[in-house]
Design brief:
The longest helix is centred in the first third of the chain and has 5 residues. Helices cover 3% and strands 58% of the residues. By secondary structure, the protein is mainly β. A hairpin with a 7-residue loop joins strand 12 and strand 13. The protein contains 2 helices and 16 strands. The chain is globular, with a radius of gyration of 19 Å.
């Protein structure tokens, strides 16, 4: 469930809840306010780190997220997280900046931070058909060898009927090194305006956990079809090697999405 509303031109709220594997929890629940040049956000949200907003994660055309997004980097810690805290977004011209002070270990039903333990930052540039971003996430409580430090690069390139995007990250969490990337290509046929064909190449590597070492690779092809103004279908087929998490993500996947605007 996702609900978004605007109280005034400068004040917006987002409410959400979702369920995975029988476990319910808050999705994004926040208010943001400000003007054209800068905005503040307070509550529970996905921090800016790569392609990480709701539409990028759930409406891209792939039923499954990239491996690197949900990779277990530590106890209850991954790039795709729901944080609680406060962040600021601003910019001038072709540059945008975002910085936040967050609790990166928020519990399932926490709408506000219990503590501030990480700093997250992002810088983004627009130039022609390119959008490029640099990201960082650093722990503030534990300075030293066990400190969480993650860095990332993301990009997007667009042209008529085709778009590419991708991300790369590397870092150290829970005293372990890890890295990963994905690269997507989207093709919109000129005469099939409701159809998108897509492909993805992705990999994660490093001493990720006791059961994972080496490089996990996955290859995906798929399609997204807008059925009506209320329904969109996504289907994909993935192949990969026998290293977790690629081992468990192979085969067919299907997703039917519904969206009602009011």
């Amino acid at each position: 469930i996702y609900l978004e509303g605007r109280v005034s031109p400068k004040l917006r709220f987002v409410l959400g809840e979702f369920e995975t594997f029988g476990r319910k929890q808050f999705d994004e629940n926040f208010v943001d306010f400000g003007g054209d040049s800068q905005q503040w956000r307070v509550g529970r949200f996905r921090s800016a780190f790569g392609h990480n907003d709701w539409s990028e994660l759930w409406y891209s055309g792939f039923p499954r997220m990239p491996l690197m997004k949900n990779l277990a980097l530590g106890a209850g810690f991954s790039i795709n997280r729901l944080d609680t805290g406060i962040d600021w977004h601003g910019g001038t011209g072709s540059q945008q900046y975002q910085i936040g002070l967050i609790d990166a270990h928020a519990r399932a039903w926490e709408p506000l931070p219990m503590r501030f333990n990480h700093v997250v930052g992002r810088v983004q540039w627009y130039r022609g058909a390119w959008v490029v971003g640099l990201n960082t996430l650093m722990e503030t409580e534990q300075i030293g060898t066990s400190q969480n430090r993650i860095f990332g690069l993301d990009w997007r390139w667009s042209a008529p009927h085709i778009q590419t995007r991708g991300e790369y990250f590397f870092g150290r969490t829970a005293a372990k090194h890890s890295a990963g990337y994905y690269f997507d290509i989207f093709y919109h046929p000129p005469k099939l305006t409701r159809t998108t064909f897509l492909t993805r190449l992705e990999s994660v590597t490093g001493s990720i956990s006791k059961s994972v070492s080496g490089t996990a690779e996955l290859y995906t092809i798929g399609a997204k079809q807008i059925l009506s103004k209320y329904f969109t279908a996504e289907v994909s087929r993935s192949w990969g090697n026998g290293i977790t998490p690629a081992k468990t993500r192979q085969g067919w996947a299907f997703q039917l999405m519904s969206s009602i605007h009011f």
